[in-house]
Amino acid sequence: MTETAKPATAPATPAKIMLEATSVVKELGFGPVKVRALKGVNLKLNAGELTLLMGPSGSGKTTLLSILGCIMTPSSGKLIVAGDSTEGLNAEELADLRRRHIGFVFQSYNLFPTLTAEENVRIALDVRGLKGSEAKIKSQRALQQVGLGHKLKSYPKNMSGGEQQRVAVARAIVASPSVILADEPTAALDSENGLAVMQLLSEIAKDKSRAVLAVTHDPRTIPFANRILRIEDGNIVGEERRTEGVETVHELARTRKRKANA
Question: Looking at residue 254, what is its pLDDT?
């Protein structure tokens, strides 16, 4: 009896690396008070993934985020962002690379109280030299993407904390950066709004042209991640990855809701 041949399975396409840090060391201070905050960190951020960086206070999370965001330079080691190396760049050149490739989401929102939601988002385009009607349209689309199309003309004081953080996310994505870095994005939010913001970041991370990294100590964020990196004493000490094709509890809940409404 002839066995039926099984069709060959095409090899999986490797994920595109949007950011790569190699042997990154960062020393802070001088002389007897000098501290090695990072001790040879190796890290890759893949397109289409939400990665969490978790660790206790003093573990090096904030220092590493500043280096990945081209705010600080490493004492040694290499950083490549969207194919561009930071090696040998001066402060102005680093700022240019940051504007082209990186979007930030801050714990404290960092919104201007005298500007509307739309104007706060447009600032991210202003610093990149994009103004006028095109900037206005992009800002409105970004706010619609985060579910705030009805809040374009609202000021921060008239928005909840969750809505303000959504404006911050819209500002981070409006210029289509290659990498989004979020610093404790749920720390200032209650449980409901914190989960809503993480859901939003996980949806944004599905874009195959961008990677998302969230620095956090909040265990509520874990179910949203594709990958979790653990940092302690300036070293990456562990990595966990969700099995490919396995839905998170939140994706399962959405699937059940869609079926119930069908």
Answer: 55
